[in-house]
Amino acid sequence: MRDFREVLARLQAFRNKFEGLLESARKKAARVHVEPTRRPTRLRELTGFGANPGNLRMFAYVPEHMPPKAPLVIALHGCTQTSDAYDHGTGWSSLADSLGFTVVYPQQQSANNPKNCFSWFLPSDIARNHGEALSIKEMVEHAIATFAADHRKVFITGLSAGGAMASVMLATYPEVFAGGAIIAGLPYGCAGNVEQAFEAMFTEHGHAAQALGDRVRAASRHRGPWPKISVWHGTSDPIVKPSNGEDIIRQWTNVHGLSDNPTYQELIGNHTRRIWSDANGKAVIEAFSISDMALTEARAQQFRPPSVA
To answer: Which whole number is the average pLDDT over 113-118?
Structure first.
């Protein structure tokens, strides 16, 4: 067993690197991006949505004159952010107005994590029917009942720590979601404590597809059909290494029983889009590699996720 002081020193080094990268990203974003005048919040908070064992807050945006059985999107912010800041940066509520769906924004509390990161690496928060994962599931159920959303059209997306938490939700409650977009996130089950979380973020690695897929299959008794997956990652992300995006792809191609090789690939400018289709020719996994972009929390102010199909 490693000396306890060595473990603490390594963990502190990881923390310093993480905080330094976040601060650097914020400064770079400030130099190239003039912050617009902040509009009043468009979100409203909902309480009483369940037992809430993860101690999260629930915010929502519902366009006027929403028809019944409209889609529902769960949007998970990154570290240092709030739901309102994430909405301002990404424009999900504006997309909801134009495309007609409800958005729910789970929000972390500093009492759980001082950096407002979702606890995507803690066993007590990433298991089905436990912790933060259960709190988010309760928000989904509450939103479906309150806003008459279509339970067959529930989608989830998240950025960085929120992307990693989206991986958690897709693995632990795959029957709930029709699809999910994981942006600068990490594969489910890649860490079980803070030190392992930092190692997963900062280290280039490539886990075996079978092992990655087994983690999802072990997360619930569900055996299909599985949600569609969209993976977005910047090739220059210094906080969440791009290999994590490739691991997410391997995790879900294995779960879907697909080849490692994409069915279709194209260049969009300098960016790469790959698609994996099932035996019926239906696209079930897509991956976007954004050239030279660092999809960190600070860059969320300049990045709008894909619209819901």
So the answer is: 94
CB 155 within 8 A of CB 177: yes
Confidence of residue 207 (pLDDT cuts 50, 70, 90): confident
Which CATH homologous superfamily contains domain 43-302? Alpha/Beta hydrolase fold, catalytic domain (3.40.50.1820)
Average pLDDT, the chain: 88
pLDDT of 199 strictly over 90: yes
Cα separation, 255 vs 228, whole angstroms: 11
Catalytic (active-site) positions: 160
Q: What one-letter code names the amino acid at 46?
A: L
Global confidence as pTM:
0.86
Separation between Cα atoms, residue 204 and residue 244, nearest integer Å: 8
d(CA 158, CA 278): 25
The pLDDT value given to residue 105? 98
User: How do the domains of the chain map onto residue ranges?
Assistant: 43-302
Mean pLDDT along residues 142-169: 97
Give the pLDDT band (50/70/90) at residue 302: very low
> Per DSSP, what are the bridge partners of residue 273?
266, 288
**Spatial contact of 234 and 184, defined as CB atoms under 8 Å apart:** yes
Within a 10 A sphere around the Cβ of 27, how many other Cβ atoms?
10
